[in-house]
Automatic annotation (TrEMBL):
InterPro entries: Man6P_isomerase-2_C (IPR001538), Mannose-6P_isomerase_type2 (IPR051161), NTP_transferase_dom (IPR005835), Nucleotide-diphossugar_trans (IPR029044), RmlC-like_jellyroll (IPR014710), RmlC_Cupin_sf (IPR011051)
Domain Nucleotidyl transferase: 4-267
A Pfam family it matches: NTP_transferase
Domain Mannose-6-phosphate isomerase type II C-terminal residue range list: 337-440
Record protein name field: Sugar phosphate nucleotidyltransferase
Source organism phylogeny: Bacteria, Bacillati, Bacillota, Bacilli, Bacillales
Matching CDD domains: cupin_PMI_typeII_C
Top-level division of the source organism's lineage: Bacteria
Extent of the signal sequence: none
Length: 455
């Protein structure tokens, strides 16, 4: 069996810590067995390694999350990268075609699951049971459903035609997010929470793609990805499947998609600079800013602060934050990259059209920024910590703390950190966006090959 972990979405219900590049699965607010802070994706990947499943697992994601995944899981993790975000059907089609192009047998069972479930290890053993159930039932799809512990209105439900908690059963129909009364009725019919885990034989999806005239060559599909229907896998495939079975899972499972559920599992009551007053009950502070937050006299409250904004909410109403931030289209103010991280300290747009953006960059020793140029902005770098090698228009030189460097419009430039480096970058120009970055080379050996060595 091959496992594909779907990593997408911006996790707006966990604003302001989550954004388009740092979704909820990357927030380091949980703790591992040694008490170290880890993210959801790190926790899940660790469980896959414990269950000897990581070697047969790949992650399907978008460009904006690749650096974060490699930073948190390591450069060896297999990633299938969407050229653009479209929905779960295109993402799953791309992952299936990738496996097919890698020589995976058409009879192989492929399991799809979210990248961030909060579960016990036995959850993954139950995922493996999907292969046996699929092969012995000749079903098109095999799903895994969670036995409900209360009539939730937040989850979709899988309703069976018949039911045996130890065996697979045939699906009658699905119901998305019912009200509490209907949820109670469905639970009475042995309905399960739909946890987004399902499996199919590779041949089933490849044959469907051929029927839809969708390329099953990986490189060709990448080039034509924008033509795929922007639909969910449920709408495009599941609703039209003729035979679907489900296995039940009775262990611990939780969707940490809101501040209310996430804080139940967090490592500490206070993350970052903050103080919770004496007598305050069940309240949390998550602070990424370099200023203190003090919480007094408010029970069942979350205060979350990041460069993207500040949220103060009672826990019960925290899931509604998505409704209020859906119109925000500002760039992420903090991102982790393969070379380190950056934080936006200040940004200003002037009436005349030009703007200023100030960043704090932290480059890990041995890592480098790509060899790049910009057409709509210039940059001034002030090196405030560490030393490295700087490239400007194919010329290399040594730089250290105290140096001030000018990267003018259209000039090729890069830097490699010898020790951990910190740079204050001041951008000026007409468009101060990440898209105004034209990469010439990423690998430092390739960059050096283009350069003449000078003092």
């Amino acid at each position: 069996m091959k496992l594909v972990l779907l990593s997408g979405g911006s996790g707006k219900r966990l604003w302001p810590l989550s954004n388009d590049s740092r979704s909820k699965q990357f927030l380091k607010v949980l703790k591992d067995a040694e008490g170290r802070k880890v993210s959801m994706v790190q926790r899940v990947w660790g469980q896959l390694e414990e269950n000897k499943l990581a070697a047969d697992s790949i992650i399907a994601t978008g460009h904006s999350q690749v650096d974060m995944i490699k930073t948190q899981l390591g450069p060896e993790v297999q990633i299938v990268t969407e050229p653009e975000r479209r929905d779960t059907f295109p993402a799953i089609a791309l992952a299936a075609v990738y496996l097919y192009s890698q020589g995976t047998d058409l009879d192989e069972v492929i399991a799809m699951l979210p990248v961030d479930p909060y579960v016990e290890d036995k959850f993954f053993q139950r995922v493996l049971d999907l292969e046996f159930a699929l092969r012995n039932s000749n079903a098109n799809l095999a799903l895994m459903g969670v036995t409900p512990t209360f009539p939730s209105e937040k989850y979709g439900y899988i309703v069976p035609k018949d039911f045996d908690k130890d065996e697979c059963f045939t699906v009658d129909y699905f119901k998305e997010k019912p009200d509490e009364a209907l949820a109670k009725h469905l639970i009475g019919k042995n309905a399960l929470w739909n946890c987004g885990v399902f499996a199919f034989k590779l041949k089933y999806i490849i044959d469907l793609l051929i029927e839809k005239n969708i390329p099953v060559d990986y490189e060709t599909l990448l080039q034509n990805y924008h033509l795929l229907p922007k639909n969910s896998f449920d709408y495009e495939i599941v609703e039209k499947a003729k035979h679907i079975i489900t296995l039940s899972y009775t262990g611990y499972w939780k969707d940490l998609g809101t501040w209310n559920t996430l804080t139940d599992e967090m490592a500490t009551m206070v993350t970052g600079k903050g103080i919770i007053g004496e007598g305050v009950k069940n309240s949390h502070i998550v602070n990424e800013l370099d200023v203190p937050v003090i919480l007094l006299g408010l029970d069942n409250v979350v205060v979350a602060a990041s460069p993207d904004g500040i949220l103060v909410t009672d826990k019960e109403g925290s899931s509604k934050v998505k409704e209020y931030v859906k119109g925000f289209d500002d760039r992420p103010m903090y991102e982790e990259r393969s070379w380190g991280w950056y934080r936006v300290l200040e940004k200003t747009k002037y009436p005349e059209g030009n703007g200023v953006l100030i960043k704090r960059l932290n480059i890990t020793a041995g890592k480098n920024l790509s060899y790049q140029m910009h057409y709509k902005r210039s940059e001034v770098w002030t090196i405030v910590r560490g030393e490295g090698i700087y490239v400007l228009n194919n010329q290399l030189r040594h730089i250290r703390a105290g140096d001030v460097i000018y990267n003018s419009l259209g000039e090729k430039h890069a830097v490699k950190a010898i020790t951990d480096m910190e740079i204050i970058e001041v951008q000026t120009g007409s468009e101060l966006v990440e898209e105004d970055m034209h990469c010439i080379a990423d690998d430092w050996n390739d960059i050096e090959a283009l350069c003449k060595i000078t003092i």
